[in-house]
Design brief:
9% strand, CECR2, Cat eye syndrome critical region protein 2, single chain, 8 strands, two-stranded antiparallel ribbon, 350 residues, alpha+beta
């Protein structure tokens, strides 16, 4: 049996499914489908998922949806663009008037089904970040759209986003990822991430950037690995509570982005401490240096970082829930007023 595969005892004789992966940490969430609890784990080589025979033979729509959601969850943590987008927005949140959020909240927003205005389709789901609000804030700062920035809103931003991408992608001679009539929220996950990354780059083209960031220290803008291991893997800290590892693919050119594989190596405080403990026993010079960075610069602050992140996340969720309730109340009042108006008109005609 593969190390780490786990499922509830009532699964009986299940069947394994294997998917290639280069990740090395486990996925925390569990999912309950048809009365069974499934534990999804990530490994260096495989992701074993145990499914009962009746589900693996005839998967229900809900089972398939949950499976695809977890596959997206795995994919999104292996794309370097996601933490880069989040770090950009965190770094320039005040300067560019961008919404504040953590990497986890960006992933959650990208994986959540929304309508054309960025409202969550499932009323039971509430996200701390609305992608439409982030996109609108970025668009308003682009020179091309600055004269009409007051017209851009979550209800019409897609028209302006297409306009910007047609112009900028032509200038830079790159393929336009938004050259389609499909609404942003209906695009594949990978395409949405590329659009957001390009949009961050386009925002830096604006004339106001030089003056806006003149007060930033170079070291606060420049991102570099916090250390390396004996295999040549780089360890990256962007902000928040996660630590990423960038692994080289043997035989690939070092100049290619595709020559590396990214993964989240530390999700929890326990993950950070376990990594430090592992490196403490190392005799490799690079790993000893990385251990020193972790012990001196990160471990003493971890508990506070996790508490602060959770506090801010809860506050943003509460704010979104409150605004959603207010919006629903307004919509209900408008419907009631319209119904009353219709009744009065019918009464007058009679």
């Amino acid at each position: 049996m593969l190390c780490g595969a786990s499922a509830s005892s009532d699964l009986g004789d299940g069947r394994y499914g294997y998917w290639s992966s280069r990740t090395g940490s486990r996925i925390r969430p569990r999912s309950r489908v048809d009365g069974h609890v499934y534990h999804f784990y990530r490994f260096n080589c495989f992701i074993p998922i145990i499914l009962p025979p009746h589900i693996s033979q005839r998967p229900s729509k809900r089972t398939v949806t949950i499976f695809l959601s977890f596959m997206n969850f795995i994919d999104i943590q292996s794309w370097w663009e996601v933490p880069c987008i989040a770090h950009f927005c965190s770094l320039f949140s005040s300067t560019f008037k961008l919404p504040e959020f953590y990497i986890e909240e960006l992933e959650e927003a990208l994986l959540t089904d929304t309508d054309a205005e960025g409202e969550v389709v499932n009323a039971k789901v509430c996200t701390a970040l609305k992608l439409s609000e982030l996109i609108v804030a970025l668009l308003k700062g682009c020179d091309t759209l600055a004269p009409i920035s007051s017209q851009i809103s979550p209800s019409n931003y897609q028209m302006f986003l297409r306009r910007l991408f047609r112009e900028k992608c032509q200038v830079y001679n790159v393929e336009n990822p938004f050259n389609t009539d499909t609404d942003f929220e209906k695009l594949p996950l990978r395409t949405k991430i590329l659009i957001l990354k390009y949009l961050c780059d386009f925002r830096l083209d604006s004339e106001d950037v030089c003056n806006s960031i003149s007060g930033y220290l170079p070291d606060s803008i420049r991102l570099e690995p916090i250390g390396y291991d004996r295999n040549g893997s780089s360890y990256w800290y962007f902000y928040g509570t996660r630590l990423y590892r960038e692994d080289r693919v043997p035989g690939k050119s070092k100049a290619s982005k595709a020559a590396t594989i990214w993964q989240v190596i530390c999700f929890t405080e326990e993950d950070w401490r376990n990594l430090a403990t592992k490196l403490d026993n190392s005799t490799n010079q690079k790993e000893r240096a990385l251990h020193e960075v972790l012990v001196e610069n990160f471990l003493p602050k971890l508990s506070k970082l996790f508490r602060e992140q959770e506090r801010k996340r809860r506050a943003r969720l509460l704010e979104q829930r409150t605004s959603s309730r207010i919006r629903l109340l307004r919509e209900k009042q408008q419907q009631e007023q319209q119904q009353l108006k219709d009744q009065q008109q019918r009464y007058v005609r009679c």
